[in-house]
Amino acid sequence: MNVSPLVWISFGLMSLTLSLMLAGDALVNLVPNRDYQDFEYRRDVAEALAVQYSALAEHDQVGTIKLSMERFVQRNPDIRSLALILKSGDVLAQIGDHAHTWVQSSGDASSLEFLQVPIFAGDRPWGVLQVAFRKSDVSAAERFLSDPWVRFLAFVSVMGFIGYLIFMKRTLRQLDPSGIVPSRVKAALDALTQGVVMIDTRDLIVLTNDAFSRAVGKSVQALIGTDLGSLSWKSVHATERTSVHPWTQAVMDRQPHDNIPLLLTQPNGELRKFIVNTVPIMDDGIIVRGALVSFHDVTELDRANSQLKEANTELEVSRVQILKKNQELEVTNTNLHIEMDHRRKAEAEKEKLYQQLMNASRQAGMADVASSVLHNVGNVLNSINVSTDTLLKTLKKPMVGDVCRIAALFNEHQNNLQSFLTADPKGKQIPSYLGLVAESLSGSHQTIQQELDSLVKKVDHIKQVIMSQQDIARAGSIREPVSVEDMMEQALVMAMPEPEKYDIQVLREYRPIPTIMTDRHQVLQVLVNLITNAKNAMVEHPDSTRRLTLRLGVPTGSAFARLEVVDTGGGIKAENLPKLFAQGFTTRRAGHGLGLHSSAIVAKNLGGALQAQSAGEGQGATFTLDLPLVLVESAA
Question: What one-character-per-residue DSSP string does 199-242 give?
């Protein structure tokens, strides 16, 4: 911030005045002490009261003394307590809790807050009057600001500064060196379009014209006496200020300096360019008295030259681009004829390739259908193998052979059958043993019946899988009312009928789901794939706790039934999640990459979605199947 010399001079004179006043106070005590005056006043009042109370005490008028004390305290709110104490220490009269209020000063001396006056009877001490005054609750800052001496100094500072500023401004106006310049010379300078400045040897402006005043955005009066170099001059070659200005160099060299470009920052932030010419003013050709500096504003001219150069450059660039475009058009025209010939040949090749592509697509579709059928049928066949193995184990139980041996015993003793069953030890055991055999055969029959029913369902599922793939272009599917919980349990039996064989713990987290309309066999196909994959992932990852979690439910506010299969197997890498459902992609050595791909297609055809989540390798995986919540009533 630039402060004019006039302000600094006024500030210095005001500071000198305050210094003289403070020095006078320090030397000859010009300022009265406010606390000393208060103390003198309180002491005089206390002495007057002491004389009055001593006279009343001599006439034994203690009641009058107390009444006087009360009236005195009422008229003086600054008094906290008041007491008249005899020489013996007895309190003759007091007002307020004087014993707690009074603080004895050192050496029986009085202070501004605790004042005591001795009372004499003739020449002998008779007693003492003690007065405790309230301590002022005014803060130090308020006390300082309310001090008359401080306010007087503040008034002298402000008014002195303003007075000195006005006085110096009027004085310097009379001493303005431009005043000796004739008015016709000033008029001639103001008529010039370029700025003209006359400076002394200290670069202080002595004279200037209106053109320069308008260029820098300051009045002529404000410029007189200021340093010409203090304005925001910059070099045209760098952003920093110039180290030595041309007018200073001209005074130092005693030689003119012409055509020096400089930039000046305007108050609004705009940069204007000036051509500066400086001529030193010599006294009899020996002593330099100052310099005459002219400023020619070439901002608009420089801007026009720049625009002209830019336009010329753009025209040159356009000419080069036009020539380049003409060459490119010629090359393009030649290439176009060649491309037309190639295109006619390509059309013929395209037709041929189209026919080949149709044949290849038909064959690929047939292979895809066959692979999907084989994969889904293979999952069911694994379960059929388990059921068949169970039937064989049941039929091979020794109970059947025992029945044949009992029949042979009956044939052997058919003539004495009654005595054999009642008297022979072996015959006596036959009835009870037949009961055990009957119970065992009944259990085996029930097991065989359950496994046969399961085989019928699995064979029916294989038939439905084959039928669903016979016509790949068929739209829609057979939808029927199904229980989601029953489908999950049936898929668990088909994919993993004996979980304890693999040391897998099955957890069921089923929330109620109403009966929905969907394609039972296609949903079973997806669930069997998911449970089979979960089993394989846990079996192939021996370090994990094998736990299969099956969840059913309807998310809040959702129109889908959610079926989740959660395993604690080897997990899925993050980079494999996006391509998990792609055809042919698999992370298992024995896998074919068909199950999840076909399952995702089935879920999409059913109007739902199949998604996978995993925290990474060794963290298990969660597969979520969302099915549209189409209720039986809505479908009807």
Answer: EETT-BEEEE-HHHHHHHT--HHHHTTSBGGGS-EEETT-SSPP
